[in-house]
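Progress against Task 2.4 (sequence-to-structure conversion) is shown through the following example record, which the project officer requested during the mid-term review.
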Amino acid sequence: MAITKSQFALNPIQWLATRDGWIDPRQAPPLQQRLPVIAASGFSAIKTEIPVGMAPGEYRECLAWAGISPGPGYVPMPWTEDPSARLTFLERARLTSANNVGVGVPLVFLAMGMDKEAPRVAHPGVGFDFKPARLEAVRDYLAEAAGIMAGEGAVPALHPHVGTWIETAEEARFVLDSVDESILSFGPDAGHLAWTGVNPAHIITEYATRVAGIHIKDYHSRFAKRSRDEDVDYRSTVRAGFWTEPGLGDANIDEVLTAAGPDFAGWVVMEVDRGTTEPEDSIMRCGAWLSERFTPELCNQEN
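Structure tokens generated for the chain above:
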């Protein structure tokens, strides 16, 4: 398949990984400190995440200083049974969308939120405690969020995630099949889908015309299998070494990207949720993988 290097963005999540297998945005270095590392690695775009108090135009200028462009956004939607409490998260979805549209990148991955004490964080990858009524309620919540986001000019894309109420391929299909594609695209995370025991390429192929962007990760599949077979929790699986830099694990990234089809023109976001080395070195390894496989011009992947 043909793809351009400019379709890739980095989510430098390595800086956020904590010792206990979680993510803490507060520990990220200042943006001005991160940008030169990302630029030196070879990535030309990053996940858009505008600091509080910064306008979209100012954010673009800050990135441009380092030769970086804004990429897709991401919004998690924590679930609560209290409709009034959900309004806060719906407003966050609106603001995130407005910011992304403001920087010129309308794609925003739309996921359920994660919590350390959530049932599926304790029992990940198996669709734990599945309840049809809750799935329908969550679907309605995501559809409401997608409508609000689309109203801002954004392109919301469903992003199934381990540890949340939209975790499995079956749950993703239910949402995609029951929410109008005019307001909700598909933005799969190949690593999280693989954690649930499916081949992510299969569902990507199934919904190829609806895929607006893809998160790609590499991983060691034995740890995901162990988590499913032995009921190992999310953070323990992460700490065991599930995630790794691209090219070092079991992910078939070629197959995942090919599944989106020859005309795929969406974003590809590279993530390493927990690096195998220091964040700066892990990011450099991601950039080396990208540069080895793609030139800045339209090219064919090497197989």
